[in-house]
Design brief:
This protein has ten helices and eleven strands. The chain has helices spanning 3-6, 28-36, 48-52, 73-85, 104-113, 126-133, 165-171, 184-193, 223-230, 247-250, and strands at 13-17, 39-42, 58-61, 90-94, 118-121, 147-151, 174-178, 201-206, 214-219, 236-240, 261-263. The strands form two sheets. It has a six-stranded mixed sheet with strand order 6-7-10-8-9-11, sandwiched between helices. Strands 3-2-4-1-5 form a five-stranded parallel sheet, sandwiched between helices. The chain folds into two domains: 8-124, Tetrapyrrole methylase, N-terminal domain (Cobalt-precorrin-4 Transmethylase, domain 1); 127-250, Methyltransferase, Cobalt-precorrin-4 Transmethylase, Domain 2. Bound molecules: S-adenosyl-L-homocysteine (SAH). The site of S-adenosyl-L-homocysteine has 26 residues, from α6, β8 and β10.
Length: 269
């Protein structure tokens, strides 16, 4: 008999978004799949509570390696195919939604190219959930009817930057920046230079729904100081726009507000 005849049917890969970190924000489907997976391939973003609660016999951390480097994407892709061809049921678990700055699309394409069956299980993205748990609606009838979700990872001064901050300043509305803690000064400057109002409200929400969630608020002009004062580190979401100021209207009654708060403005924002 040839190898092909004895090889097991390939297992299914489930591309699962974990939500922002609170295990109760896993979808019912994600929870069920995690409970019965043979292998869970995860990075760090799902957060400590979800990762510590994993019951799968085999978990593989592909988020960080020895020197703190991420496992290169091609290696993750190959590992998924290899495990599937051994007949395993695999959950590929990523923070938020796998298809929002999660490279889930690339993994899906690779699996399709290699004839491995897969299913996409959407998650609650931090792009909307992190502002929400901090009391910030990304849309609000009185303030904005559009939301742009962009990466803050790139250098806005480089011509090859894929994010057009000038255009975003024109569009207005709510801008949600992922991966944008380090380059906060660069893109707030870029928006100001493009004509955005200096008093535009901004909020940073770090580790949303984790036990050590932190929030900093300010304006396009003051948020960098607020970031440093609170000590905001990745992972954090930046919300830019009038909606960021509406947090003040609900803060007193926000039961899930665990954050230490500092603003670098004179009054409440
Ligand atoms: N797929 C993810 C995003 C991955 S990019 C999603 O849909 O949420 C990584 C970025 O996501 C981080 O730099 C941060 O901007 C954001 N992020 C993810 N989880 C977060 C959380 N719990 N709190 C705040 N930001 C988070």
């Amino acid at each position: 008999m040839s190898d092909a005849a004895t090889a097991p049917e390939p297992g299914t890969v489930y591309l699962v978004g974990s939500g922002p970190g609170d295990p109760e924000l896993l979808t019912v489907k994600a929870k069920r799949l995690l409970e019965r997976a043979d292998v869970v391939l995860h990075d760090r973003l799902p957060g400590p509570e979800i990762l510590e609660g994993l019951s799968a016999e085999r978990c593989e951390d592909v988020g960080k390696r020895g020197g703190g480097e991420r496992t290169p994407q091609p290696e993750i892709n190959e590992r998924l195919v290899e495990l599937a061809r051994e007949g395993n049921s695999i959950v590929r678990l990523k923070g938020g939604d796998s298809f929002v700055f999660g490279r889930g699309g690339e993994e899906a394409e690779y699996l399709a190219d290699h004839g491995v069956p897969f299913e996409i299980v959407p998650g609650v993205t931090s792009a909307t959930a992190a502002p929400a748990v901090a009391g910030i609606p990304v849309t609000h009838r009185e303030h904005t009817s559009s939301i742009s979700i962009v990466t803050g990872h790139e250098d806005p001064t480089k011509p090859e930057s894929a994010v057009d901050w000038e255009a975003l300043a024109d569009v207005g509305g709510t801008i949600v920046v992922l991966m944008g803690v380090k380059r906060l000064p660069d893109y707030t400057d870029a928006l100001l230079e493009a004509g955005a109002a200096p008093e535009t409200p901004v909020a940073l929400v770090e580790r949303a729904t984790w036990s050590n969630q932190q929030v900093a608020t300010g304006t396009l002009e003051t948020i960098v100081d607020a970031r440093d004062e609170v000590g905001i580190n990745p992972p954090a979401v930046t919300v830019i726009g009038e909606v960021a100021a509406t947090r003040a209207n609900v803060l007193e009654f926000l039961a899930n507000e665990t954050a230490s708060e500092a603003t670098a403005t004179d009054g409440e924002v």
